[in-house]
Amino acid sequence: MAIPKSVMASGYIRRMFRAGTNESRELIKQVEWTKYLCGVRESHFLVVGVRWHPSGSWRVQFKRRCYEHNYFVNCSCYFRVGQWGFDRAKEMAIGYRRRLEYEWAELQEAWKVVDDERERIRLKKREARRLAELEAQEMMSHDGDAEGLLIGGEE
């Protein structure tokens, strides 16, 4: 029987397991522990970041960082079972986590467009600078050809 770590964070549950009495053993057998697992598959990974919390709620955790764009997301939400019911709170938590993942992916695509535009502008400036250097070198080479000529009436 697999018991989620997050369930063991509750003092009541821990005491029930550690008591070792006949009553506690019977109570442990009656609980459907798999309900407290969030075994929904997200592509080929489990939905990470949605788990049961000892406060009696489903917790959504979402942390993402993009140092290049100086953008940091740290989200922690609780969907209370007392307010929404066990199954509805679990569904809402999973849905919210998926929404956060989708919005992050959407943001990555937007950043890709912005980064591509910046790169295009940077390359355009680099090319303009290179052409200006070539023109300056060409002007310098023409100035060198006129060395023997008199300029401005000097002898």
TrEMBL record:
Subcellular location(s) per record: Nucleus
Please verify whether the record's keywords include Nucleus.
yes
Q: Where is the AP2/ERF domain?
A: 47-101
- Name any one GO molecular function: DNA-binding transcription factor activity
User: Is Transcription regulation tagged as a keyword?
Assistant: yes
**InterPro entries registered for this protein in UniProt:** AP2/ERF_dom
What name does the UniProt record give this protein?
A: AP2/ERF domain-containing protein
- Name the source organism: Perkinsus chesapeaki
